[in-house]
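note to self: the first set is below, dont mix up w the second
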Amino acid sequence: MKRLIMNSIKSAREKSGMTQKEVESTLELRTLMIKDYETGRLKLPIDMAIRLADLYQVTIDELVNCKGQEKNLVKLEVLFDKNELDMVLLDPIIRGHIETYSDKIFNSSIHDILVTDLNQTEQAEYKEIMLCYLYSLIGVDGKILSTELNFVNFIITIMGDSKRVRALKKHIHSPYSMVDLSDILKKNLHLRHFIIWIMFFLAKSDRELCLEESEYIEKVAEELRVLKSSFIFIKNMFIKGDV
């Protein structure tokens, strides 16, 4: 599986007509970094996968060769994987919930563990709430970037298809706001925290976190009743000082 992913990353670059050095120069990476990804010396993180997919003009699924039965295995390695999101585990609220299921942590993704107490209907509702906030974040700075759309599309792939995804996209132009906190979120503070984490990951998917994005995420944190101190803790994992 690992070799399949490595070969796919290399193939996507070669089809784009770019050399390793050209990619490193374009993305301002250190020398031999692309070689390290293509040979498996470095694991490909989600933010880099998004940048490479955008540069090579392919989807992330195509970049890591997600198809058929292999998709479930690949998606856990690329997103919501504990090794990829170790910084999320520094959040005491999320860590506290995950430690309750410590027997599952090496065989499940962070996302799977976070929603393990929800039934299918509740998981679908939580997914749609998260997607509404993510789509709203995409449009908050007046720019709709392919890296951001790729990120959200991959979130949809990871969390499962949604019949209402097309309808939810309206929030790119019509910001989403929850009138009342849903019962699911009222009972699960860790899920509220996770929405804020994923929003920051999305905001940084283009390597920049602008003021409008930071202010909007803070507004969402207030709406989700996430403590100001908790919001600042999460925000400071992505930036140095205030945006």
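second set (the one i keep forgetting abt)
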Amino acid sequence: MKIVVLIKEVPDTWGERRLDLETGLTDRAGSTPVLDEIDERAVEAALAHADAHPGTEVIALTMAPASAAATVRKALAMGATSAVHVVDEALRGADLLLTAEVLAAAIRRTGFDLVIAGNLSTDGGGGVLPAMVAEVLGVPQLTALSRLEVGADAVAGDRVSDAGTMRVSAALPAVVSITEALPEGRFTTFKGIMAAKKKPYETVDAAGLGVEAEDPAVPRYIMVSVAERPPREAGIRITDEGDAGEQLAAFLIAEGVA
């Protein structure tokens, strides 16, 4: 079986994250770049299946600047078989649809039985990319799974909703996304780090995938404005002088809560 895992380099969630006020994009130099934790869990899910089924190939796939190579190699150090890194300056600031088209083209090129992704990245937070990739590939999708079971010709899992837990399944090939309910990624070892240096690592651009990068003069979307979040202001303090209840009620009504 061939499993492709979508991974992403993001600013460290424990650090301060900012937007570039000129481009509107995330300021990648503003904090330490790391492999998104949800993607570590996705890699772990693929590796867990590979551990139990010898011969399973796990391919880490990302679309990111060349500087993300160290982050990609972490997935190799965890145990992924190989990596594919899409690097193209023309894709900088690509929207979700273009990103899905590029990733789908890379997935078709490598071949796949199953694609595993995190359900939501910590920097963009679109939460729709796995579904869009599945749509472009024309295969079934199982999203936001809190439990994952991979069989020889089908995949199944549980999806938790406000109404309860749904049991879903699909025939392979398919795309799935997982939540933080799945196990954390395994720690990398010195042996794994050294082995990662010798594993296949392919770099490809949009042209190599047969995808035409967008003409910068014809944007697919337009950013209206970008600004820093205003500093937090002091809250309203209600002093009880016999009318605290009335003040609180008036405040809630003014805020549209009551």
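remember for set 2: Residues 155 and 228 are 43 Å apart (CA to CA).
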